[in-house]
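Tutorial handout. Part one gives the primary structure; part two gives the three-dimensional structure as tokens.
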Amino acid sequence: MRVACIQMRSGTDPAANAAIMGDLVSEAAAQGAQYVQTPEMTGLLEKNPKRLLEIIEPEESDPSFLAAGELAKRHGIWLHLGSTAIRREETGTDGRAANRGGVFSPDGTLVATYDKIHMFDVAVDENNRWQESARYAPGERAVTVDAGFARIGLSICYDIRFPQLYRQLAKAGAAILTCPAAFTRPTGKAHWETLLRARAIENGAFMIAAAQGGVHEDGRETWGHSTVVGPWGEIVGRLDHDEPGVLVCDIDLEEAASARRRLPVLENERRFAMTKV
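Part two.
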């Protein structure tokens, strides 16, 4: 089957971001993609907390969610909105949004949502200090989606550093793992490809990762390099830059089944006790 990653440089205007998403998704669909994934924070990249809360909408009126449903139906594709900032019922009391992704079926129906579980609370360097948990409420459930052609496991960006999540998604039947992201430039350069390949190899699964790239309106810099990895760890396709664009790849899902037969790690895994001496 044919899959696509949409690489973006989202800004602070949700309507403009939704329009750009529409153009790029249409380009991927025109190239025959049956599953299309957009990056983390497709609809809005705004690091000013006050302005973020002034802009965001509930899921049912968010411009990216609305556009994604229409695009999926228009093109007859599975469209995975990597994520965007969504106003929760509790946002008015705790001041935190949801970092939420959504998967739309070819008839435009929203079939699943996923809220990012692991919050990016880090100090990489002087220019990259983030406290995501101050602005976003973490999700509490892992999610897989039966897309007909395969079961897909959902994640977002920083989740990639927590292999236990992907093992559970794989054990729940996911042959395709996903990681739409907005990786920082220093962490992306150092770790992006290594982490994607590791999660694919560990689970005998394809990894599809659409990314944000470049210098954004709010001042942050993201790594780009959207990537598709095969279940044996090979790079199926990659954008070797941080510019907006479309990556289209053909994948053979039998390769995931073959990798799991050759290395049956999901079956061989055992529970064990821990001893500290």
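Part three, for discussion. The longest helix spans residues 185-203. DSSP finds eight helices and 16 strands in the chain.
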